[in-house]
From TrEMBL:
Gene3D superfamilies: Glycogen Phosphorylase B. Pfam families: EryCIII-like_C (PF06722). One of its GO terms (molecular function) is glycosyltransferase activity. It comes from the Bacteria. This is Erythromycin biosynthesis protein CIII-like C-terminal domain-containing protein. It comes from Actinophytocola xanthii. The lineage of its organism: Bacteria, Bacillati, Actinomycetota, Actinomycetes, Pseudonocardiales. Residues 176-285 form the Erythromycin biosynthesis protein CIII-like C-terminal domain. InterPro entries: EryCIII-like_C.
Length: 304
């Protein structure tokens, strides 16, 4: 590692975007760099390792350059952003004369990539496995030994859940909705996968954040997709033996209970998930992405 530098991260305040970037920031901090991580509520209260300093700013990051707390940490040598904060980052990069790196939470869109049929990222892209962290929403533990179903689905009728799962047999946890009052058999959580570590089954729409979280946690998934992209994702998950696809046209309380109950005790699926988790861990880690960021820092020094 070269001399210590100051790296500024501009992050959208969203769990699916913030945590993959925060993993990189923490690794940079562990390597001795000064790292400032700017985001908005509620994630500015996150706890970060590696001496990373979290800075509260607006949602798009435009005002971060005016914050005295940032100026007090010294000149910035590199800005790491994501598509949602790219405009603010580019403006700061021009103002400060520093390089800007765009970190995508998933595969970048555009002509270089056709997903899922083809993946070609070129030499300027680094793949990093999903990070399994995040504490801003607090811990969640089951209140009793009942099996836990974690529901991360924006468009699933709550009435179907209540009809399908007897509260004496299942603890149903909603991970992503504030649309209803808290009926007795349902625990409503803040957004995110806080309860995933204790879930026996995940019920998802087939979005990439849920799939990544399920693989990371080796949690079997019942997928009820909405969009064409989610249908493709769900079919791929089912084809790999990591979960089951339940078409929305076939969704009833009985079919949902049957799919969840069978999957919850399917050891073949759990074994496949453990293998998939190992493969993902081998495919990438924070280290190669941070190596690339340090390469940008070194290139900036050479160009100065």
């Amino acid at each position: 590692m070269g001399p210590s530098r100051h790296v500024l991260f501009l992050s959208r305040p969203d769990a699916d975007h913030l945590y993959p970037s925060l993993v990189l920031a923490e690794e940079l901090g562990r390597r001795g760099h000064r790292v400032t991580f700017a985001t908005a509520d509620p994630f500015a209260d996150e706890e970060a390792a590696g001496d990373v300093v979290l800075l509260r700013c607006g949602r798009d990051g435009h005002a971060v350059g005016e914050l005295p707390a940032l100026a007090a940490r010294g000149p910035v040598d590199l800005v790491v952003c994501e598509p949602a904060t790219r405009d603010a980052a580019l403006g700061l990069g021009v103002e400060w004369g520093v390089r800007v790196v765009v970190a995508h939470a998933q595969l970048p869109a555009g002509g270089a990539v056709a997903w899922p049929a083809e993946r070609f990222l070129g030499t300027r892209a680094v793949y990093v496995r999903p990070g399994g962290r995040g504490t801003v929403h607090g811990e969640w533990v089951p209140s009793d030994p009942r099996p836990v179903l974690l529901v991360a689905h924006d468009d699933l009728p709550v009435a179907t859940l209540l009809a399908a799962f007897d509260p004496a047999d299942w603890q149903v946890v909603l991970a992503d909705t504030g649309r209803l009052a808290d009926p007795p058999p349902v625990a409503v959580l803040t957004p995110g996968f806080t309860a995933l570590a204790h879930a026996d089954v995940l019920l998802s729409d087939g979005g990439l954040p849920g799939i990544a979280a399920a693989v990371h946690g080796s949690t079997p998934t019942v997928l009820v997709p909405n969009t064409p992209e989610e249908h493709r994702n769900a079919a791929r998950v089912a084809g790999l033996g990591l979960g089951v696809l339940l078409p929305k046209a076939d969704l009833t309380p009985a079919s949902l209970l049957r799919a969840v109950s069978r999957l919850g005790v399917d050891e073949v699926v759990r074994a496949a998930l453990r293998r998939a988790r190992s493969l993902v861990a081998l495919a990438g880690a924070p280290e190669p992405a941070v190596d690339a960021l340090e390469g940008e820092l070194a290139a900036a020094v050479r160009a100065a």
